[in-house]
Amino acid sequence: MVFGTTYRGRLRHLTFTSRRGRNRRKATFQTLIAAAGIQPGQRVLDVGCGTGYFVRLISAALGPSGFAVGIDPSPAMVEYARRRAAGITTSQFQAGNAEALGFPDDYFDVVVSSLVMHHLPEDLRTRALL
Length: 130
Prior knowledge:
Layout: E1 2-8, E2 11-16, H1 19-35, E3 43-47, H2 53-62, E4 67-72, H3 75-84, E5 91-95, E6 110-112, H4 122-129
Parallel strand pairs: 3-4, 3-6, 4-5
Antiparallel strand pairs: 1-2
């Protein structure tokens, strides 16, 4: 069950108040992992990672030989994601923008993005997808 919203500056996220809601959230993101074809050992980028929840699930799916990177334009969210992922050696978080990634072409096997495209101005959406 979604109880409401919590605001921190410009950041908004849903607060799940029941185990059922948390399980549904995890199941939804596990479905996204499967739909993206994420396999153990791959390098995966999550654009607009927010709290890093999806990156943490991806890291678990990748196993010890894979690596997941989460980027977000908010340094506060990146710091939060780093704290939540403390001890996970197969993930990394950094501040960055969807339209100007600091990685070479073909560096990642899979690039995912959930719940971020609608936050981008329309003129940046196409550039972010290229």
